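Recap quiz, item 2
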Amino acid sequence: MKTNNENLNDQQIEELKKLEKLLSSFPEPHVPNHIMQTVQDSIKNELEGLQGRIRLRLVSILAAAAVFAIVFGAMFINNNDTKTEIKDNPQQVSILGNDQVLYKVGIWQESAGEKIDNIAMNDILTLWTGNKINSNNGNIEEPLEPVSQKSQASMQC
Amino acid sequence: MEKDILADMISKCQKGDKDAFNWLLNEYGPRLYRYFLRTSGNDERAGDMLQEMFVKLLQKIKKYQHQGQFEHWLFRVAANLARDNARKQKNVYSLQNDDPDKPGPGDLLVGRGPGPFENVEHSEQVEILQQAIDMLTADQKEIILLRHYSQMSFQEIAQELKIPVGTALARAHRGLKRLKEILDPKINAITKNR
Protein backbone atom coordinates (compact mmCIF):
# COMPACT_ATOMS: atom_id res chain seq x y z
CA MET A 1 0.00 0.00 0.00
CA LYS A 2 1.32 3.40 -0.99
CA THR A 3 1.51 5.59 2.09
CA ASN A 4 3.90 8.33 1.01
CA ASN A 5 2.65 11.75 1.95
CA GLU A 6 1.02 13.49 -1.01
CA ASN A 7 -0.04 17.08 -0.88
CA LEU A 8 -2.99 18.55 -2.76
CA ASN A 9 -2.76 22.10 -4.02
CA ASP A 10 -5.44 24.68 -3.24
CA GLN A 11 -7.25 24.04 -6.49
CA GLN A 12 -7.42 20.32 -5.80
CA ILE A 13 -8.69 20.97 -2.26
CA GLU A 14 -11.47 23.13 -3.68
CA GLU A 15 -12.28 20.41 -6.19
CA LEU A 16 -12.36 17.85 -3.41
CA LYS A 17 -14.91 19.93 -1.49
CA LYS A 18 -17.12 20.20 -4.60
CA LEU A 19 -16.89 16.48 -5.22
CA GLU A 20 -17.88 15.78 -1.63
CA LYS A 21 -20.94 17.97 -2.13
CA LEU A 22 -21.76 16.01 -5.26
CA LEU A 23 -21.66 12.78 -3.29
CA SER A 24 -23.93 14.28 -0.63
CA SER A 25 -26.46 15.29 -3.29
CA PHE A 26 -27.28 11.64 -3.92
CA PRO A 27 -30.22 10.25 -1.97
CA GLU A 28 -29.46 7.77 0.78
CA PRO A 29 -30.78 4.20 0.61
CA HIS A 30 -33.84 3.34 2.70
CA VAL A 31 -33.31 1.28 5.83
CA PRO A 32 -35.73 -1.68 5.82
CA ASN A 33 -37.81 -1.93 8.99
CA HIS A 34 -37.25 -5.66 9.30
CA ILE A 35 -33.50 -5.11 9.58
CA MET A 36 -33.93 -2.67 12.45
CA GLN A 37 -36.32 -5.12 14.09
CA THR A 38 -33.87 -8.01 13.69
CA VAL A 39 -31.07 -5.99 15.27
CA GLN A 40 -33.38 -4.95 18.10
CA ASP A 41 -34.23 -8.61 18.74
CA SER A 42 -30.60 -9.64 18.72
CA ILE A 43 -29.76 -6.88 21.24
CA LYS A 44 -32.50 -8.25 23.50
CA ASN A 45 -31.26 -11.82 23.13
CA GLU A 46 -27.64 -10.88 23.69
CA LEU A 47 -28.47 -8.90 26.83
CA GLU A 48 -30.56 -11.76 28.21
CA GLY A 49 -27.76 -14.20 27.38
CA LEU A 50 -25.25 -11.92 29.05
CA GLN A 51 -27.33 -11.73 32.21
CA GLY A 52 -27.74 -15.49 32.12
CA ARG A 53 -23.98 -15.93 31.83
CA ILE A 54 -23.40 -13.57 34.78
CA ARG A 55 -25.92 -15.55 36.85
CA LEU A 56 -24.23 -18.80 35.85
CA ARG A 57 -20.83 -17.42 36.84
CA LEU A 58 -22.20 -16.36 40.23
CA VAL A 59 -23.66 -19.81 40.78
CA SER A 60 -20.33 -21.43 39.89
CA ILE A 61 -18.47 -19.15 42.30
CA LEU A 62 -20.92 -20.01 45.07
CA ALA A 63 -20.64 -23.70 44.25
CA ALA A 64 -16.84 -23.53 44.32
CA ALA A 65 -17.00 -21.72 47.67
CA ALA A 66 -19.34 -24.38 49.04
CA VAL A 67 -17.05 -27.21 47.88
CA PHE A 68 -14.06 -25.42 49.43
CA ALA A 69 -15.93 -24.98 52.71
CA ILE A 70 -16.90 -28.67 52.78
CA VAL A 71 -13.37 -29.87 52.00
CA PHE A 72 -11.82 -27.48 54.49
CA GLY A 73 -14.37 -28.42 57.12
CA ALA A 74 -13.68 -32.11 56.59
CA MET A 75 -9.95 -31.51 56.91
CA PHE A 76 -10.48 -29.55 60.10
CA ILE A 77 -12.63 -32.25 61.63
CA ASN A 78 -10.10 -34.86 60.58
CA ASN A 79 -7.25 -32.85 62.10
CA ASN A 80 -9.08 -32.49 65.37
CA ASP A 81 -9.64 -36.24 65.50
CA THR A 82 -5.98 -36.97 64.94
CA LYS A 83 -4.93 -34.32 67.42
CA THR A 84 -7.07 -35.92 70.08
CA GLU A 85 -5.60 -39.26 69.27
CA ILE A 86 -2.08 -37.96 69.52
CA LYS A 87 -2.80 -36.11 72.72
CA ASP A 88 -3.54 -39.45 74.29
CA ASN A 89 -0.02 -40.63 73.47
CA PRO A 90 2.36 -37.78 74.19
CA GLN A 91 6.03 -38.31 73.44
CA GLN A 92 8.76 -36.85 75.54
CA VAL A 93 11.80 -35.84 73.59
CA SER A 94 14.81 -33.72 74.30
CA ILE A 95 15.58 -30.95 71.87
CA LEU A 96 19.02 -29.45 72.27
CA GLY A 97 19.09 -30.43 75.88
CA ASN A 98 15.72 -28.92 76.81
CA ASP A 99 13.22 -31.49 77.85
CA GLN A 100 9.95 -30.69 76.23
CA VAL A 101 6.82 -32.51 75.54
CA LEU A 102 5.58 -32.69 72.03
CA TYR A 103 2.62 -34.21 70.49
CA LYS A 104 3.54 -36.75 67.92
CA VAL A 105 3.12 -35.65 64.39
CA GLY A 106 3.29 -37.90 61.39
CA ILE A 107 6.67 -36.77 60.16
CA TRP A 108 8.11 -35.64 63.45
CA GLN A 109 11.66 -36.80 64.16
CA GLU A 110 11.35 -38.43 67.47
CA SER A 111 14.92 -39.15 68.45
CA ALA A 112 16.10 -37.09 71.38
CA GLY A 113 18.41 -34.17 70.81
CA GLU A 114 17.74 -33.83 67.13
CA LYS A 115 17.45 -30.33 65.80
CA ILE A 116 14.32 -29.45 64.01
CA ASP A 117 15.43 -27.32 61.12
CA ASN A 118 12.66 -27.80 58.69
CA ILE A 119 10.46 -24.76 58.45
CA ALA A 120 7.68 -26.72 56.87
CA MET A 121 7.86 -29.14 59.71
CA ASN A 122 7.78 -26.25 62.14
CA ASP A 123 4.66 -25.03 60.48
CA ILE A 124 3.15 -28.44 60.83
CA LEU A 125 4.17 -28.59 64.45
CA THR A 126 2.76 -25.14 65.09
CA LEU A 127 -0.43 -26.21 63.50
CA TRP A 128 -0.63 -29.42 65.45
CA THR A 129 0.65 -28.36 68.80
CA GLY A 130 -0.32 -24.75 68.88
CA ASN A 131 3.26 -23.86 69.84
CA LYS A 132 5.96 -22.18 67.88
CA ILE A 133 9.30 -23.84 67.33
CA ASN A 134 12.34 -21.70 66.73
CA SER A 135 13.65 -22.66 63.35
CA ASN A 136 17.22 -21.64 64.24
CA ASN A 137 17.73 -23.79 67.29
CA GLY A 138 14.73 -26.04 67.25
CA ASN A 139 13.57 -24.84 70.65
CA ILE A 140 9.95 -24.67 71.47
CA GLU A 141 9.39 -21.03 72.27
CA GLU A 142 6.19 -21.51 74.16
CA PRO A 143 6.26 -24.70 76.24
CA LEU A 144 3.42 -27.05 75.85
CA GLU A 145 1.30 -28.08 78.75
CA PRO A 146 3.13 -30.71 80.83
CA VAL A 147 2.38 -34.32 80.23
CA SER A 148 0.26 -35.87 82.91
CA GLN A 149 1.93 -38.25 85.28
CA LYS A 150 -0.23 -41.00 84.08
CA SER A 151 0.74 -40.52 80.53
CA GLN A 152 4.42 -40.30 81.39
CA ALA A 153 4.22 -43.46 83.39
CA SER A 154 2.47 -45.29 80.62
CA MET A 155 5.11 -44.05 78.17
CA GLN A 156 7.99 -45.21 80.33
CA CYS A 157 6.45 -48.63 80.49
CA MET B 1 -28.78 15.80 19.85
CA GLU B 2 -27.88 17.04 23.29
CA LYS B 3 -24.54 15.88 24.58
CA ASP B 4 -25.99 15.15 28.02
CA ILE B 5 -28.55 12.76 26.56
CA LEU B 6 -25.86 10.88 24.67
CA ALA B 7 -23.61 10.65 27.76
CA ASP B 8 -26.56 9.40 29.79
CA MET B 9 -27.47 6.79 27.19
CA ILE B 10 -23.87 5.59 26.93
CA SER B 11 -23.72 5.25 30.70
CA LYS B 12 -26.96 3.24 30.67
CA CYS B 13 -25.68 1.04 27.86
CA GLN B 14 -22.57 0.33 29.95
CA LYS B 15 -24.91 -0.99 32.65
CA GLY B 16 -26.67 -3.23 30.13
CA ASP B 17 -29.86 -1.19 29.71
CA LYS B 18 -31.84 -2.59 26.76
CA ASP B 19 -33.79 0.63 26.13
CA ALA B 20 -30.58 2.64 25.93
CA PHE B 21 -29.23 0.22 23.32
CA ASN B 22 -32.45 0.59 21.34
CA TRP B 23 -32.02 4.34 21.55
CA LEU B 24 -28.50 3.98 20.12
CA LEU B 25 -29.87 1.74 17.39
CA ASN B 26 -32.50 4.30 16.38
CA GLU B 27 -30.02 7.12 16.53
CA TYR B 28 -27.09 5.56 14.67
CA GLY B 29 -28.51 2.37 13.12
CA PRO B 30 -29.67 3.93 9.82
CA ARG B 31 -26.37 5.70 9.21
CA LEU B 32 -24.38 2.61 10.09
CA TYR B 33 -26.61 0.47 7.89
CA ARG B 34 -26.03 2.82 4.93
CA TYR B 35 -22.32 2.80 5.58
CA PHE B 36 -22.29 -1.00 5.58
CA LEU B 37 -24.51 -1.11 2.52
CA ARG B 38 -22.20 1.21 0.60
CA THR B 39 -19.07 -0.65 1.65
CA SER B 40 -20.43 -4.14 1.00
CA GLY B 41 -22.82 -3.36 -1.86
CA ASN B 42 -25.28 -5.92 -0.53
CA ASP B 43 -28.35 -5.12 1.59
CA GLU B 44 -28.51 -8.54 3.25
CA ARG B 45 -24.87 -8.40 4.20
CA ALA B 46 -25.31 -4.81 5.43
CA GLY B 47 -28.10 -6.04 7.74
CA ASP B 48 -25.86 -8.82 9.06
CA MET B 49 -23.06 -6.35 9.63
CA LEU B 50 -25.35 -3.98 11.52
CA GLN B 51 -26.40 -6.87 13.73
CA GLU B 52 -22.79 -7.88 14.31
CA MET B 53 -21.91 -4.26 15.00
CA PHE B 54 -24.43 -4.02 17.83
CA VAL B 55 -23.35 -7.34 19.31
CA LYS B 56 -19.80 -5.97 19.30
CA LEU B 57 -21.04 -2.74 20.87
CA LEU B 58 -22.58 -4.69 23.74
CA GLN B 59 -19.14 -6.08 24.53
CA LYS B 60 -17.02 -3.02 23.74
CA ILE B 61 -19.07 -0.21 25.23
CA LYS B 62 -18.12 -1.17 28.80
CA LYS B 63 -14.54 -0.16 28.08
CA TYR B 64 -15.48 3.01 26.22
CA GLN B 65 -14.64 6.26 28.03
CA HIS B 66 -16.87 9.05 26.82
CA GLN B 67 -14.99 12.22 25.96
CA GLY B 68 -17.41 13.59 23.39
CA GLN B 69 -16.14 11.54 20.46
CA PHE B 70 -18.67 8.74 20.47
CA GLU B 71 -19.51 8.91 16.76
CA HIS B 72 -15.88 8.65 15.79
CA TRP B 73 -15.36 5.70 18.10
CA LEU B 74 -18.50 4.08 16.70
CA PHE B 75 -17.32 4.47 13.15
CA ARG B 76 -13.86 3.20 13.99
CA VAL B 77 -15.52 -0.02 15.18
CA ALA B 78 -17.69 0.00 12.04
CA ALA B 79 -14.68 0.59 9.77
CA ASN B 80 -12.88 -2.40 11.30
CA LEU B 81 -15.95 -4.52 10.77
CA ALA B 82 -16.27 -3.35 7.16
CA ARG B 83 -12.60 -4.11 6.57
CA ASP B 84 -12.96 -7.63 8.01
CA ASN B 85 -16.03 -8.19 5.88
CA ALA B 86 -14.26 -6.95 2.74
CA ARG B 87 -11.40 -9.34 3.45
CA LYS B 88 -13.81 -12.25 3.85
CA GLN B 89 -15.70 -11.30 0.69
CA LYS B 90 -12.46 -11.00 -1.26
CA ASN B 91 -11.73 -14.60 -0.40
CA VAL B 92 -15.23 -15.64 -1.49
CA TYR B 93 -15.00 -13.68 -4.75
CA SER B 94 -11.62 -15.13 -5.56
CA LEU B 95 -13.40 -18.50 -5.66
CA GLN B 96 -16.40 -17.15 -7.63
CA ASN B 97 -14.83 -14.65 -10.02
CA ASP B 98 -16.44 -16.20 -13.09
CA ASP B 99 -19.88 -14.73 -12.32
CA PRO B 100 -21.12 -13.30 -15.67
CA ASP B 101 -23.67 -11.01 -13.99
CA LYS B 102 -21.11 -9.21 -11.89
CA PRO B 103 -20.34 -5.77 -13.36
CA GLY B 104 -16.78 -5.45 -14.46
CA PRO B 105 -14.60 -2.37 -14.79
CA GLY B 106 -15.79 -0.21 -17.67
CA ASP B 107 -19.33 -1.61 -17.81
CA LEU B 108 -20.74 1.75 -16.79
CA LEU B 109 -18.28 3.95 -18.63
CA VAL B 110 -20.48 5.18 -21.46
CA GLY B 111 -19.93 8.72 -22.71
CA ARG B 112 -19.45 11.93 -20.71
CA GLY B 113 -21.58 14.86 -19.72
CA PRO B 114 -23.41 16.62 -16.88
CA GLY B 115 -25.60 14.73 -14.43
CA PRO B 116 -29.17 16.02 -14.05
CA PHE B 117 -29.94 13.80 -11.06
CA GLU B 118 -33.38 15.29 -10.46
CA ASN B 119 -34.77 13.40 -13.46
CA VAL B 120 -33.69 10.03 -12.17
CA GLU B 121 -35.75 7.91 -9.76
CA HIS B 122 -34.60 7.66 -6.14
CA SER B 123 -33.92 3.92 -6.25
CA GLU B 124 -32.09 4.26 -9.55
CA GLN B 125 -29.86 6.99 -8.16
CA VAL B 126 -29.08 4.86 -5.15
CA GLU B 127 -28.23 1.94 -7.40
CA ILE B 128 -26.17 4.03 -9.82
CA LEU B 129 -24.11 5.47 -7.00
CA GLN B 130 -23.61 2.01 -5.53
CA GLN B 131 -22.34 0.65 -8.83
CA ALA B 132 -19.95 3.57 -9.13
CA ILE B 133 -18.69 3.13 -5.55
CA ASP B 134 -18.09 -0.55 -6.23
CA MET B 135 -15.75 0.42 -9.03
CA LEU B 136 -13.42 2.40 -6.78
CA THR B 137 -10.32 0.85 -5.27
CA ALA B 138 -10.71 -0.48 -1.72
CA ASP B 139 -8.50 2.34 -0.36
CA GLN B 140 -10.49 5.08 -2.07
CA LYS B 141 -13.81 3.56 -1.06
CA GLU B 142 -12.76 3.25 2.57
CA ILE B 143 -11.75 6.91 2.92
CA ILE B 144 -14.66 8.36 0.94
CA LEU B 145 -17.33 6.39 2.81
CA LEU B 146 -15.78 6.85 6.23
CA ARG B 147 -15.60 10.58 5.62
CA HIS B 148 -19.15 10.74 4.22
CA TYR B 149 -20.88 8.75 6.95
CA SER B 150 -18.80 9.40 10.05
CA GLN B 151 -18.10 13.08 9.38
CA MET B 152 -14.59 12.50 10.68
CA SER B 153 -11.93 14.99 9.62
CA PHE B 154 -9.22 13.86 7.20
CA GLN B 155 -6.79 14.19 10.08
CA GLU B 156 -8.79 11.70 12.15
CA ILE B 157 -9.28 9.36 9.21
CA ALA B 158 -5.55 9.43 8.49
CA GLN B 159 -4.87 8.62 12.13
CA GLU B 160 -7.34 5.76 12.07
CA LEU B 161 -5.88 4.29 8.87
CA LYS B 162 -2.30 5.03 9.97
CA ILE B 163 -1.45 7.01 6.85
CA PRO B 164 -0.29 10.61 6.34
CA VAL B 165 -3.07 13.23 6.03
CA GLY B 166 -1.85 14.17 2.55
CA THR B 167 -2.30 10.59 1.40
CA ALA B 168 -5.83 10.47 2.82
CA LEU B 169 -6.71 13.70 1.02
CA ALA B 170 -5.17 12.56 -2.26
CA ARG B 171 -6.96 9.22 -2.13
CA ALA B 172 -10.29 10.90 -1.46
CA HIS B 173 -9.67 13.37 -4.27
CA ARG B 174 -8.74 10.68 -6.79
CA GLY B 175 -11.63 8.47 -5.69
CA LEU B 176 -14.25 11.21 -5.92
CA LYS B 177 -12.97 12.33 -9.31
CA ARG B 178 -13.22 8.79 -10.54
CA LEU B 179 -16.71 8.56 -9.07
CA LYS B 180 -17.80 11.62 -11.02
CA GLU B 181 -16.27 10.24 -14.21
CA ILE B 182 -18.31 7.08 -13.76
CA LEU B 183 -21.52 8.79 -12.70
CA ASP B 184 -21.88 11.59 -15.25
CA PRO B 185 -22.21 9.44 -18.35
CA LYS B 186 -24.42 6.93 -16.60
CA ILE B 187 -26.92 9.58 -15.53
CA ASN B 188 -26.72 11.05 -19.03
CA ALA B 189 -27.49 7.76 -20.68
CA ILE B 190 -30.53 7.18 -18.47
CA THR B 191 -32.02 10.64 -19.02
CA LYS B 192 -31.51 10.40 -22.83
CA ASN B 193 -33.62 7.22 -22.89
CA ARG B 194 -36.62 8.93 -21.17
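Chain B touches chain A at residues 16, 18, 21-22, 25-26, 29-30, 33-34, 37-38, 43, 46-47, 50-51, 54-55, 58, 117, 122, 125-126, 129-130, 139, 144, 147-148, 162-167, 169-170, 172-173, 176-177, 179-180 (CB under 8 Å).
The first helix of chain B runs from residue 3 to 14.
End of item.
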